[in-house]
Amino acid sequence: MSGITRDTLMAFVDGHLDPTGRTEVEAFLAANPEVAAEVALLQRQNDAIRTLYAPAGAEPIPVRLSVDRIAHSGRRRNNRFLTQAAAAVVLVGVGLAGGWLLRGNADTPGIADRLIADAVSAHTVYVLEKRHAVEVGGDEEEHLSSWLSNRLQTNLAMPDLTASGLTFLGGRLLPAPDVPGGKAAQLMYEDANGERLTLYITPRPGIDAPRTELASLGADTALFWSDDMLTCTITAPYSADKLEAIASAVFAQLNPSGDGYEI
């Protein structure tokens, strides 16, 4: 088992091991639950990326990024720039998310897709944490609401979801480069079975965004919603129907004066 390295684990996550290698890693993970939890997190993140960006991955590489064209241009440059161009081609070939960065601006994912991706990424990172799942605990709800409201420059309530069987654990501040101010709030809840739900809340972007969007991401479901003031993405390992029922309670409390949630 000493032969199980970080590279071996990454190959396992990406499905690049032969049957013998997979069997060895599975036995290693069974004996090392902390490593198994990290591997499960990586697998969930891979599932989310594939689901959100599969259309981009299925498209042909643009002519401007073809190997021949880059190589031809590189002959007129020094070795340093040629190496950088080759690295860009490799990035397009192996990374779906990276591929979006190398496309023209007109082809980038919509704002809702980008915020969903950010929300799911933050969800998968923090729901597995025990001691550091949140930055400020739910027992400091008034302080948390005031702090996050100030950072997001809006009046942010902490939705009470006890009627949905969810206990408020607390929240944290996160970066959100796609929205004004560059900040997002993540609020976390937990049900009686230990499953966790997160709300990823941002000010409304300064561009058009859809009213709602629903995405199935492996074991999780993500529901995006926006109004004239903010956006919220709810992520949890629940069915779409269950998430939509919870959404009604969430959005009624986030924006009491609004029209409420409609899918």
Q: Report on the biggest sheet.
A: 7 strands, antiparallel
Number of strands: 7
Helical amount = 40-55%
CATH superfamily (homologous) name of the largest domain: MucB/RseB, C-terminal domain
Radius of gyration: 21 Å
- CATH-derived topology of the largest domain: Phosphorylase Kinase, domain 1
Widest sheet: strand order? 1-2-3-4-7-6-5
Please state the oligomeric state of the protein chains shown. Answer: single chain
**Average pLDDT score:** 78
What would CATH call the architecture of the largest domain?
Answer: 2-Layer Sandwich
* Alpha-beta classification: alpha+beta
Summarize the helix and strand pattern as letters: HHHHHHHEHEEEEEEH
Number of helices: 9
The total tally of domains equals 2
The rounded distance between the terminal residues' Cα atoms is 50 Å
What form results from the Cα inertia axes?
globular
At the first level of CATH, the class of the largest domain is Alpha Beta
- In terms of per-residue confidence, which ranges show pLDDT below 50 for 5 or more consecutive residues? 80-107
What share of residues are in beta strands? 15-25%
Protein name: Anti-sigma factor
Keywords: Membrane, Transmembrane, Transmembrane helix
InterPro entries: Anti_sigma_zinc_sf
Organism: Devosia soli
